[in-house]
Amino acid sequence: MTCKGIVLGCFWLLLTSLSIAAESEGGSPRLTGQIQLDSSWERTVYLSYIPTFEDLYAMSYDMIIAEAAIDSLGHFSLDLSFLPKEDRIYRLHVVKRGDAPTSLTIGGLEENHLFLIANGADSIRLEANGLRPPFRDVTYRNAPAQTALQEVTDFENRTTDLAAESNAAKRQFIEVQMYDQLRTIADTSGHPLVSLYAIYLSQFESNLREHTDFYQRYRKKWKGEGSAYFASFRRQFPGRPSYLRIGAFAVAAMSLLGLGYYLGGRRTPGEPAGLKELTVQERKIYELLRKGATNQEISDACHIGVSTVKSHVSSIYRKLNVKSRKEVINM
User: Fold this and answer.
1) Three-state SS string across 56-83, please?
2) pLDDT greater at residue 9 or residue 38
3) Closest CA to 136 of 185, 94, 85
4) Does the first or last residue of the chain, that is N or C, have fewer Cβ atoms within 10 Å of its Cβ?
5) Mean pLDDT score of the chain, rounded to an integer?
6) Helices (H) and strands (E) in the chain, counts
7) Class of CATH domain 29-142
8) 3-state secondary structure string across 82-144
């Protein structure tokens, strides 16, 4: 390459950097940043909308709302001006070469995504300095909510990694301490979505009864939050009984008793309702849950990440209409 070509190339790179910096400093709201990727990754970044925390690890083409090219230096820029003005949860991800845009890897060195809070009014600038996985070391510029959310993620990642290197007995102690700390983070955070994110990472479905007082106080604290995220969270809790309707429910139950016997005859005796809805992987994890296996033990047995295990366990709870491991064991 001639000296002139080198100069022009440097000038072009400078203009690109200045343009991205200008976009992040002013103008329409944008998500800009830099990702360190090797040649095994596609040079496109995708932004997905996460409607509830139950959908953190769900993926479909309908969830992807924007995409942008990643240049040779890892820079990208996404327009956010079309987003709602209130904070919501989104997911940023990249995929391996040849993989579909909907490919999502949870846990391990090939984990390909991060979660963030965004809206249609503020610009966000991030630096992803990790390589394997690419989103493990992420920092934000002048974005307190993003930084707080990332700190929760980093804490969960560090503790999960430590637990994975420990024996079963030590791992159980580490997980209990991690869930306690996540509840403390949720209780002290001033941002509703950061707080609720910590609650979901704490696997609250499995310890609702054990920490009833905490969750009663927590729900009271955020009772004014009307977002879909909190509405979905509140549905996880049993409602107050309406004694005026108990009689009607009893009559209805008696009326359906015969139908229950009929339908029950179509199921394997003792088989829980909803079991047939489980996928092959979920059925395997269900059997391990029945034996009292921890998330890490399930991860080792199924050769999947702990985060993937958590996603499957949540799906199993939902399909079987249970809220804890104890209920699964007692089924």
Assistant:
1) CCCCCHHHEEEEEECCCCCEEEEECCCC
2) 38
3) 94
4) N
5) 83
6) 12, 8
7) mainly beta
8) CCCCCCEEEEEECCECCCCCCCCCCCCCCCCEEEEEECCCCCEEEEECCCCCCCCCEEECCCH
Q: What is the secondary structure of 3-17 as a DSSP string?
A: HHHHHHHHHHHHHHH
Sheet with 30-35: list strands edge to edge. 75-79, 30-35, 124-128, 138-140
CB atoms under 10 Å from CB of 2, counted, come to 7
Half-sphere exposure of 136 (CA within 13 A, CB side): 15
Mind listing the pLDDT tens digit for each residue in 178-191? Answer: 999 999 999 999 99
**Structural domain boundaries of the chain?**
29-142, 160-234, 275-331
Termini Cα distance of the chain: 71
Three-state DSSP class for residue 52: coil
Residues 6+ apart with CB under 8 A from 146: 116, 117, 124, 126, 140
Residue 248 tokens, joined: 């009607």
Take residue 44 and report the two structure tokens written for it: 């496109």
pLDDT tens for 116-144 read 999 999 999 999 998 889 998 999 998 99
| Structure-block tokens of residue 270 | 């003792």
Query: Tokens representing 276?
Result: 């047939």
Helix, strand, coil abundance in the chain, percent, nearest 5: 50, 15, 35
Looking at residue 47, the DSSP 8-state letter turns out to be E
pLDDT digits (tens, 9 = 90+) for 18-54: 444 444 445 789 999 999 999 999 999 999 999 999 9
Nearest to 162 by CA among 177, 180, 182: 177
Three-state DSSP at 48 gives: strand
CA 119 – CA 85 distance, rounded (Å): 5
